[in-house]
Write a structure and sequence with these properties.
The complex is a heterodimer of chains A (417) and B (146).
Chain A lengths: L1 E6 L2 H9 L8 E4 L6 E4 L1 H5 L12 H5 L4 E4 L2 H15 L6 E5 L2 E5 L5 H19 L3 E6 L2 H13 L4 E3 L3 H9 L11 H9 L5 H5 L3 H19 L17 E11 L2 H21 L2 E11 L9 E11 L2 H15 L6 E9 L2 E2 L15 H16 L37 E3 L1
Parallel strand pairs in A: 2-4, 7-8
Antiparallel strand pairs in A: 1-6, 1-7, 2-3, 5-6, 9-12, 10-11, 10-12, 10-13
Helix pairs in contact in A: 4-5, 11-12
Chain B lengths: L45 H5 L6 E6 L14 E5 L9 E6 L2 E9 L4 E4 L8 E2 L6 E11 L4
Antiparallel strand pairs in B: 1-2, 2-7, 3-4, 3-7, 4-5, 5-6
Classes of the chains: A alpha+beta (417), B mainly beta (146).
Chain lengths: 417, 146
């Protein structure tokens, strides 16, 4: 039996743990630069606020105090996610972290009542330990567990099991194609043209026909809906194969110095992640996106490194050079980013014999100390001059109303009287 | 001749607990041994001592003086474990109508009272109509002494 555990209104729920007063009104969380709505509390969903709605639609209501509107605080959400997943890991050893707020489990077979009892206990434990409400859906396949989870969220007090074939079929008859995991908008349209409107109809389709129409993954979805497991629990995520750090700017930037500052900061951030997973990068790529009205693609500069490295100053120097090459005076850019890739293991380096090798243990040591200091004090306790002056820079995303980092910064702890 | 079959019992090794063994960096010297080697101990980790349930443990900062008598001063950091039950007599972080407070909880048959430990504050009896919840149980107080 598979289970999908999904946190309810995760970002909003994280905020409510530390500020329950926010729950008096509908609450929405805004994207980077406060552009659009990326999460809603239950009350916000009830009054019909949609995911992805632009923030300005609700600014007046927020100003009148009718709804709460806050910027996103990913440091807080990541820490709360870590806690939820840690508690969940006692549910079953076969666990797959699917996203920041969802995890799949493979549960030992047992009678439904026992599984439900376990799930109810797990749900209670997570709520008590972390303050985050979750829903748990259980079914013979991952795709069905996803559907069971939706049902758990809607009507069934947070836990739902779909195991009887008859019950599964009757629920699939009420499930729209677009709500099936793995069926996108386009596939749904395609199927509608062939007269298939519900998940139940999809289970009755001919295998060969589906395979021809939607490929192997489409057939997998159909088999999974019939209760035949095709998708397994994916083992712990391996080391990342590339690291991307990119941001859109609060307003467009046409100044090379500022763009270089921005990219130096993104590079420093990416290099820190690179060292955390004990990898060295083989290439670095930087990009700049002009506004859509310019009708040009974003400009991309790929730089192969002579020797794999995770040494920030080296990477920053190359990133700055790349940006200088891409930059066209007179153009204004809305987004920039850095991608590190072609990783090798810190302990097994394959150097280019012909390239000058200025590897030194001092560099490794310096980065280790840098990371330690920044982890202990403040993310930006030690920074590179190339990142620009301290304080708010014009390229940094604007978050007008962000909650404190209650769980990751000593200066931001929750205050009690 | 066939091997005589024997009954073998296999035990699965338990890898769930880490058992770090001391690694001596000192070269072995001939002559008089260092007595210190015999007293090799792991260094102490405060987290291990103070935090039983890391996933459920939060730190909060004290702003008021209502719990002075319990040794909780302004600016102290409290270690709060949400996994523990707020049984009678525990010091808890509670939320009353949206406001966070630290108090000692008294649970009677029909009522719940939050007591301060400072004569300037009167006990708060929880009205069933209030929005009230216990957020976590205080397990340690961190007070800066210098």
């Amino acid at each position: 039996m598979f289970a999908l555990v999904d946190c309810n209104n995760f970002f909003a729920s994280c905020e409510l743990v530390f500020n329950p007063l926010l729950d008096k009104k509908p609450l929405v969380i805004l994207s980077n630069n406060d552009g659009c709505i990326i999460a809603r509390s239950q009350k916000a969903k009830q009054i019909g606020i949609k995911m992805g709605d632009p923030a300005f639609l609700y600014r007046d209501q927020a100003a009148r105090g009718e709804i709460g509107m806050i910027s996103s605080n990913f440091a807080l959400y990541a820490d709360m996610s870590r806690r939820v997943m840690e508690v969940l890991s006692s549910f079953s050893p076969d666990m797959e972290l699917y996203s920041i707020d969802e995890a799949f489990f493979l549960l030992d077979d047992a009678p439904d009542e026992i599984l439900v009892k376990q799930a109810v206990a797990m749900r209670g434990k997570i709520k008590q330990w972390t303050g985050i409400p979750v829903s748990i859906g259980m079914a013979p396949t991952k795709t069905l567990a996803k559907i069971a989870n939706e049902m758990a969220k809607k009507e069934l007090g947070g836990v739902c099991i779909l195991s009887e074939p008859a019950a599964i079929q009757s629920h699939l008859a009420k499930t729209a194609l677009i709500d099936v995991w793995g069926v996108g908008r386009r596939t749904a349209e395609q199927l509608k043209r062939k007269g298939i409107y519900t998940a139940a109809q999809l289970t009755e389709a001919d295998d060969a026909w589906i395979r021809k129409l939607l490929g192997v993954t489409g057939l997998q979805t159909v088999l999974e809906l019939r209760g035949i497991p095709c998708l397994q629990i994916l083992e712990e995520e391996e080391k990342k194969k590339s690291i991307l750090c990119s941001r859109s700017f609060p307003s467009q930037i046409g100044d090379l110095v500022l763009l270089q500052e921005a990219v130096a900061s993104f590079t420093s951030h990416a290099a820190e992640k690179l060292r955390a997973q004990k990898s060295l990068a083989g290439f670095l790529s930087v990009f700049l996106s002009p506004p859509l009205s310019e009708k040009t693609d974003s400009y991309n500069c790929h730089i192969q490194l002579p020797n794999p490295t995770s040494y920030t100053p080296e990477l920053i120097a190359l990133a700055r050079e790349g940006i200088a090459q891409l930059f066209r005076p007179g153009l204004f850019y809305k987004r920039a980013g850095v991608l590190l890739g072609d990783f090798s293991d810190e302990d097994h380096v394959q150097n280019d014999l012909m390239a000058p090798n200025d590897f030194s243990p001092q560099k490794t040591e310096a980065m280790k100390i840098l990371d330690q200091i920044n982890a202990r004090y403040d993310k930006a306790a030690i920074r590179f001059a190339a990142q620009g002056k301290k304080g708010k820079r014009p390229w940094q995303s604007s978050r007008s109303n962000v909650s404190p980092n209650f769980t990751t910064n000593w200066n931001d702890l929750l205050k009690v009287k | 001749m066939p091997l005589k079959s024997r009954e073998l019992t296999f035990y699965k090794s338990n890898l769930s607990k880490k058992c770090a063994l001391p690694f001596f960096l000192e070269p072995v010297r001939a002559g008089f041994p260092s007595f210190a080697d015999n007293y090799f101990e792991q260094s102490l980790d405060l987290n291990e001592h103070l935090i039983q349930h890391p996933a459920a443990t939060f730190f909060v900062r004290v702003e008021g003086d209502s719990m002075q008598g319990a040794g909780i001063q302004k600016q102290d950091i409290l270690i709060v474990d949400r996994s523990l039950l707020p049984t009678n007599g525990k010091i808890v972080i509670a939320i009353i109508n949206g406001e966070f407070t630290v108090k000692r909880i008294r649970v009677f048959q029909e009522k719940i009272v939050l007591e301060a430990e400072n004569p300037n504050y009167t006990p708060i009896q929880i009205d069933p109509n209030w929005d009230f919840q216990v957020w976590g149980v205080v397990t340690y107080v961190i007070h800066k002494a210098v």
